[in-house]
Amino acid sequence: MSPIPATRPRASAVRSRAENRTGWGFVAPFAVAFLVAIVAPIAYAIYLSLYRQDFFGNQTFVGLSNYVRALSDPSLWGGLGRIVAYIVIQVPTMMALALVAALAIDSGRLRGWRFFRLTLFLPYAVPGVVAVIIWGFVYGPRFGLVGSVNTLLGTTLDPLSPRWIIVAISIIATWEWAGYNMLVYYSALRTVPTELYEAAAIDGAGAMRTMFSVKLPALRGAIVITLIFSIIGSVQLFNEPNLLKPIAPNAITSDFTPTLYAYTLSFAGRQYSYAATVAIVMGIVTAVIAYIVQLRGHREAMR
Amino acid sequence: MSTSRTGARSSRPRPSTTLLVVLVLMTAYTLVPLAYLVVNSSKTSGDFFSTFGLSFGSSFELFANIGHVFSYDQGIYGRWFANTLLYVVAGGGGSAIISLLAGYGIAKYAFRGRTALFAVILGAVAIPGTALAIPTFLLFSKVGLTTTPLSVIVPSLVNPFGLYLMWVYSRDAVPTELLEAARIDGSSELRTFAQVSLRLLAPGFVTVVLLSIVATWNNYFLPLIMLSDPKWYPLTVGLSQWNAQSTGTNAQPIQNLVLTGSLLMIIPIVAAFLFLQRYWQSGLAAGSVKQ
Q1: Is B267 on the interface with A (CB under 8 A)?
Q2: By the CB < 8 Å criterion, does A35 face chain B?
Q3: Shortest CA distance from A289: residue in chain B
Q4: Is A125 domain-assigned?
Q5: Is residue A61 a part of any domain in this protein?
Q6: Do residue B40 and residue A97 have CB atoms under 8 angstroms apart?
Q7: Distance CA A172, CA A193 (A)
Q8: Does B116 touch chain A (CB under 8 A)?
Q9: What are the tens digits of pLDDT across the range A184-220?
Q10: What pLDDT score was predicted for residue A214?
Q11: Which residues of B touch A148 (CB under 8 A)?
Q12: In this predicted model, what pLDDT tens digit does every residue of A150-197 receive, in sequence order?
């Protein structure tokens, strides 16, 4: 097409240089913000974690000794233990509720499904802080809704006691997130081609059979994704215990979860180096768990 | 139980009572705390303690409580509301725009280092926000950025998931041939973006804006650690402060303010969700097929 073929390579070199400039131009604002708000803090935290601050703010290089301290810190391990208990209770409960709701809404056998889809999703729009504040009032054994029920029935229920606190937090988190997960599952169910249902019907598959052979396999990806996000979210648990602490001082200690512990270390204790170490350890733990869950999810999907 | 009712979409299946009962129970779980909030926002402090949790008080005081929320402590609630709007517009809005530009740039220009950059950014999706917030606080306090609004706005600007959504959207919604045609017509890249691509990207962009607004409106941990002056608090931190004041040893009787303030904070975001349903649903759909 071009009358002088010789100029072509030069033109494309100019083009690609221009493309480089334009491409980076579009990406530059994000890249700068990414450096300032993600890369630099991580680098600084790693640097801090290798030092120890004395009383006067002098830094001494201590190698990995902050990490050694973290690995044998009963506060950190105690917090992790509570997180594991919390994950075991909360994540399966929430995912089961979300799955049941999504399958019910998708089944075509539920009257008023639009209403249910919208209502169950509603708590997602409620800011986490407000959700915990409301539930804190609901849980109040003397002044709240539980208190009203106690007066009415002569019971002494106390969701904010050390014995029940993890269950109480699980109920809040499930309330906040079940609807969101339901919508993720529902969106995945919507992508199942109608022909697949028709084929199943022709093969004589009943409702249960269709659910197990068509719907649940279609949900696998969505289930793995929500599982990973739920676990990552749970490992960071902070809002609920921090906001319930004033009304449940006996049940929630300042090292109740690792994040609450890191927060206490940096603000009450001013142990910045060690707080940075705890944050890094938690980041690594989270990444490892997410990686394992994802790997297992893939392996299951291969089978 | 399993009669062959799965010819589904052609013949209408029989409604199930079991499913209805299960879903009604789940709806009760969802609505009771919200009903509690609405009911108790309309009570006086006295009625709050003396009447049953889910029944209205002797008088309906919602509007008096709203007035009280805005006048308490020299109207600090209004200030918190304005701060929240600032963080939502500058942080959330800014993050959506930055994600839009970067997602488009990565999808449409084969610049050097693109693949590596994209891999790094996608890896960052998995970084837990809370674990990152403490290092960010330590760094910002070192350079004297904490206690200013910037300390909340700057970290909110980075949203790797938003970038991912805009990348998917740019790749699918903007045909490369269209850009080539504009180039041949002599249009500059920026003009092409503003006059051709932007229109095609609008629906995806609205989704990202919505997700950013929700994230910054609900943000708690970051402003909690960054800010120390109540003058700069967003609503989340301010309300939690009031909530803490209303309990404990020398508690102030401001429960009705906490409840009414919470109710007022929910209303705008619930309204946004109801009006923009279409958009958050497409965003969720994109999230669910991420695998």
Answers
A1: no
A2: no
A3: B126
A4: yes
A5: no
A6: no
A7: 36
A8: no
A9: 899 888 888 878 888 888 888 877 888 888 888 888 8
A10: 84
A11: 52-54
A12: 888 888 888 999 999 999 999 999 999 999 999 889 988 888 887 888
Domain that holds residue A90: 66-302
What DSSP letter does each residue of chain B carry, written as one string? ---S---TTTSPPPPPHHHHHHHHHHHHHHHHHHHHHHHHTTS-HHHHHHS-TTS--SS--HHHHHHHHHHHHHHHHHHHHHHHHHIIIIIIIHHHHHHHHHHHHHHH---TTHHHHHHHHHHHTTS-HHHHHHHHHHHHHHTT-TTSTHHHHHHHT--HHHHHHHHHHHHHHS-HHHHHHHHHTT--HHHHIIIIIHHHHHHHHHHHHHHHHHHHHH--HHHHHH---GGG--HHHHHHHHHHHTSSTT--S-HHHHHHHHHHHHHHHHHHHHHTHHHHHHHHHHHHT--
CATH code of the domain containing A201: 1.10.3720.10
Q: How far is CA B33 from CA A64, A132, B238, in A?
A: 47, 10, 21
A41 and A120 inside one domain: no
Name B198's Cβ contacts closer than 8 Å, sequence gap at least 6. none
CB contact under 8 A, B262 and A235: no
pLDDT of B108? 92
Question: Are B259 and A137 an interchain contact pair (Cβ–Cβ within 8 Å)?
Answer: yes
CA–CA separation, A200 vs A190, rounded Å? 16
Q: What is the pLDDT of residues A254-266, one digit of tens each?
A: 999 999 999 999 8
- Residues in B closer than 8 angstroms to A20, CB to CB, are 109, 111-112
Same domain for A202 and A151: yes
Query: Which member of A27, A198, A208 has the closest CB to residue B1?
Result: A208
Interface A–B counts its CB contacts (< 8 A) at 312
Q: What is the ipTM of this complex?
A: 0.86
